[in-house]
Amino acid sequence: MPSKQNIAIIGGGWAGLAAAVELCKHGHKVTLFESAPHLGGRARSIEWNGMALDNGQHLMIGAYQKMLECLKTIDADVTKLFKQLPHRMLMMDAQTGNTAFDLQLPTYPAPLHLLFGVLNTPSLSIKEKLLLLLRFNRLLNTEIKTDISVSEWLSQAKLPVSYCKNLLEPVCLAALTTHPHQASAKAFQNVLQQTFNAPANFTDLLIPTTDLGRVFPALAKEYILKQGGEIRTRSKVQQLQSEGSRIKSILINNETMSFDQIILATPPVASAKLLHKQPGCEKLNAQISRLEYEPVSTLYLHFERPVPLPYPMLGVINGISEWVFERTLSGHNDVLAVVFSAQGKHLKMPVDELVETVYNELGNIIENLPELLHSQLITEKRATFQCHPDIDKDRPNINTGLNNLKLCGDYVYIEENNQPGLPSTLEGALRSGVKCAQLLLSNLN
Asked: Residues of the chain with pLDDT > 90: what percent?
């Protein structure tokens, strides 16, 4: 048995928390440092008009197996945290208010869920349905030798134009936070494979019944403290102090502290600052410096009365809105969240104009839309890394050039069955945190 280690985790987002939980589970002493007053990073709770909402809307599905494993570890009741629904991709036209595409996926194992879903899609002819099934199956299962853009990949697949324009391209933008003409086909194929070539419930939508801060960060904090760990918020790490090939100490709030092992779980820009000029980290720093970033904006709309949607999540085409989420299950049936991914004209619009445009689009889609009381726009300027072709070459690995320092975060490349890395998602962050902790533990043996 390896001796128990005193381990510092720098960063209290989902990746850092997942690493802390995994290490505490194995009996190590963990101290987690977070510069902000709250945990959760970019997926945390905020207070608005007396309501607990999320800093940004996140989509979770049954394929998020690492999230479900982490929640099980901390004794969370998943049946209370989420309502599980068969996935429905209901795409609405912002100009006409008509349904552009409606794909409902029953909870059947692959490939039956897709077969039944496509055959029951009302907007396609029988010929289009059969052609779609044949070509989409080929799209999913044909290896991409050389990475190209998603737009080029879909064009080569000769899928029905309506299916690409009204469904796959919006899904690509949402999943990779990168426009299809810039996005990695390999990364998108991996996302589709992990969703569609999977057990029956992997496509199901997991709708939180509370705000994100209570889904994982609060419960993880409780678990870490119960296991004897320590969490210090408002604690900014100013410097990593190295000696030879190890980190000797870290400077936190002008206090010098020493640890046996250190995990750096901060966002890439913050990590690069701490790793600057550290011995052996030149390649890692070069990789991080090549990463480009995309914003995600969430517009919260508070109405005078409840706004029921035909499904808790709607896609929008031919408008400025992209995805609309209702917040009924989290206790706010009079609030909608409208999400905008990556660069777009929404970023250049005055907020009042954006709100008016979105309200008018929703008015075309939703009958008898109530009066709007309040609105709040939240933009994370560096919400995700841009998932361009061959992105994994620019993503750093868990190991750094220093023996007792490891890296985790959704931007860190995790080698799994020779598959492309996940895009910037909560599942990707959790996988990275757990894998980082497991690698650290294996090195101790």
From this structure: 80
